[in-house]
């Protein structure tokens, strides 16, 4: 049994692929092709590349319909559907609010209430028209922006996994920045890949998962959960990472599209499903909705497993609730 590990930087993070199989040359070739696909998708989906298809949409769609590639159109349709299912908690038009709060390329700042209101008026999928007849997108007002940051990594991993499967790979683990991981099959020495969901650092550093089946990946602090994965994806969303503190209150980079304010109360959300595209989006939705929306999100798909860590405002009291994850821990 051969083991191959490859990595590449894309989408402002590090993608890694670990593969097991009989032919190391074939495994490496498949992994390179999968990573090439991730890079291609970054060039298409990036909000920060002027040459990307998304940038073209953002610069022109308020003036006239913009034709997009069919695969991107389907992703936009899926994003609309996920937004509807989550009552707007997941929304790819969130960019004006992210910019308003200083998190687009920065660490955040407190905006004026008027600025928040103006940004909110440019957010919402009701401002986006998708025409399936000619694969066009149109914005209904100036200033609307598409940002696929909360679904793009999961989508890229799902596409990469399809390439690996088409190449005959039956045992692999892929992750993007350790916030989304996709498992194909199981490692040679176990029934499933083991992935740890780590405790978020209250000092504001990045939340993450420890990926792999090797105990060398273990953390000194007991994780929130150790999750077995086989032919499914896990995504973790958290308010830590990009954040700032003001008057003793932390403001994170995950903005609630419905209120225009950073998410409060929920610290970390995790979702497990066969689709990495869906886990990426729905973990963001769960984090945004918090405890009041946990049952709503968990009931969207048969067999979905979820975990939510919340904190009572003004205290350090934390509550961990789970549907199908802790029960198996």
Fold blueprint:
Elements: E1 2-10, E2 13-21, H1 24-45, H2 53-60, E3 66-67, H3 70-85, H4 95-100, H5 113-120, E4 128-131, E5 136-139, H6 152-166, E6 172-176, E7 180-184, E8 193-197, E9 209-211, E10 225-229, E11 232-238, E12 243-246, E13 249-252, E14 266-273, H7 276-289, H8 294-298, E15 305-311, E16 318-323
Antiparallel strand pairs: 1-2, 2-6, 3-5, 4-5, 6-7, 7-11, 8-9, 8-10, 11-14, 12-13, 14-15, 15-16
Helix pairs in contact: 1-6, 6-7
Could you walk me through the main structural features you see in this protein, from its secondary elements to its overall organization?
- With 329 residues, this protein is an alpha+beta fold.
- It contains eight helices and 16 strands.
How would a textbook summarize the main sheet? 8 strands, antiparallel
> Low-confidence stretches at least 5 residues in length (pLDDT < 50)?
203-208, 212-220
How many DSSP H or I helices? Answer: 8
End-to-end Cα distance: 29 Å
Helix residue percentage: 25-40%
Number of strands: 16
Helix/strand-derived category reads alpha+beta
Oligomerization state of this entry? single chain
What is the CA-atom radius of gyration, in angstroms?
20 Å
Look at the structure and name the CATH superfamily of the domain at 187-328. Answer: ApbE-like domains
């Amino acid at each position: 049994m051969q083991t191959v590990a490859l990595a590449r930087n894309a989408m402002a993070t590090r993608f890694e692929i670990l593969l097991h199989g009989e032919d190391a040359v074939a495994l490496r070739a498949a992994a390179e092709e999968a990573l090439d696909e991730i890079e291609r998708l970054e060039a298409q989906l990036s909000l920060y590349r002027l040459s990307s298809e998304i940038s073209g949409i953002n610069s022109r769609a308020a003036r006239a319909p913009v034709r997009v590639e069919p695969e991107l159109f389907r992703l936009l349709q899926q994003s609309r559907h996920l937004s509807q299912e989550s009552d707007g908690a997941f929304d790819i038009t969130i960019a004006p609010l992210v910019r308003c709060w200083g998190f687009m390329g920065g660490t955040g700042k407190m905006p004026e209430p008027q600025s928040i209101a103006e940004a909110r008026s440019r957010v919402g999928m009701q401002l986006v028209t998708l025409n399936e007849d000619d694969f066009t997108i149109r914005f209904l007002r100036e200033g609307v922006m598409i940002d696929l940051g909360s679904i793009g990594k999961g989508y890229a991993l799902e596409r990469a996994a399809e390439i690996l499967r088409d190449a005959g790979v039956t045992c692999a683990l892929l992750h993007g920045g350790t916030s989304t991981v996709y498992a194909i099959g199981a490692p040679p020495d176990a029934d499933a890949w083991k992935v740890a969901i780590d405790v978020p650092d209250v000092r504001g550093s990045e939340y993450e998962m420890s990926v792999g089946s090797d105990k060398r990946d273990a953390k000194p602090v007991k994780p929130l959960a150790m999750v077995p994965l086989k032919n499914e994806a896990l995504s973790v969303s958290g308010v830590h990472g990009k954040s700032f503190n003001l008057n003793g209150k932390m403001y994170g980079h995950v903005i609630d599209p419905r209120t225009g304010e950073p998410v409060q109360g929920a610290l970390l959300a995790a979702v497990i499903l066969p689709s990495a595209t869906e886990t990426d989006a729905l973990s963001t939705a769960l984090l945004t909705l918090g405890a009041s929306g946990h049952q709503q999100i968990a009931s969207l798909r048969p067999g979905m497993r979820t975990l939510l860590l919340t904190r009572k405002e003004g205290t350090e009291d934390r509550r961990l609730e789970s549907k199908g994850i802790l029960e198996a821990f």
